[in-house]
Specification:
There is one protein chain. Helix content is about 0%, strand content about 65%. The chain has a 20-stranded mixed sheet that branches. Strand 17 and strand 18 form a beta hairpin. The radius of gyration is 17 Å and the shape is globular.
């Protein structure tokens, strides 16, 4: 199979190719997009669920113009993941590749990569669950200063850094705990060999 281009689909879309890139936009009722060998570029998706999977290729989702899904699942074996202005619950898995996630709003973000950096930004007040793990890579999380969560940063051989807006409670060589606001949510960032930073953003 070759490349796939799809646009303006009213029902749930299922797009699959064994070899080739997939480009799709204006999907109104969610989608499942799978490429065995190729990049995936998707934009302006609404609906309950959006699933993007690639064995060998990058995955990009752009919701900056419009779009919003209740749940987003992304998986790639070898490739980078770039999510722009999405919302809802997000789960990202990558064996080898960097993960970059920008969320307009979310109560849950789960990100896991064996080898790669993870960078996530949440543009609205956050009081949900964020769990980010990488075996070899850096982790940077950016959240609004009026967010509410407890946090735990863990790295065996990297630096731990926290914005002054989020008070530390304990700080050891490999572990830092603290709190933002009332501490309603839970943020856990883990890297086996990499630096971890949580910072305050302006939204």
């Amino acid at each position: 199979q070759g490349a796939i281009h799809a646009e303006s689909i009213g029902g749930f879309a299922k797009l699959t190719t064994k070899s080739g890139d997939i480009q799709a936009r204006k999907l109104d009722a969610g989608a499942e997009v799978i490429s065995q060998s190729g990049d995936i570029h998707v934009a302006q998706v609404n609906g309950a669920l959006l699933t993007l999977k690639s064995v060998s290729g990058d995955i990009a989702l752009d919701q900056s113009i419009s779009g919003g899904c209740q749940e987003l699942i992304i998986e790639t074996i070898s490739g980078d993941v770039n999510i722009q202005d999405a919302e809802g619950a997000v789960e990202v898995k990558s064996t080898s590749g960097d993960i970059s996630v920008v969320l307009k709003q979310s109560d849950q973000i789960l990100a896991n990569t064996m080898s790669g950096d993870v960078d996530f930004t949440i543009k609205s007040r956050f009081s949900g669950t964020a769990s980010v793990q990488t075996m070899s890579g850096n982790v940077v999380g950016s959240v609004l200063p009026d967010s509410s969560f407890r946090f735990s940063l863990e790295s065996l051989s990297g630096e731990l850094e926290c914005d002054p807006a989020f008070p530390q409670e304990t700080h050891k060589r490999t572990l830092m705990n603290g709190r933002a606001g009332a501490g309603d949510g839970d943020v856990r960032l883990i890297s086996r060999s990499g630096d971890i930073r949580i910072r305050s953003s302006a939204g």
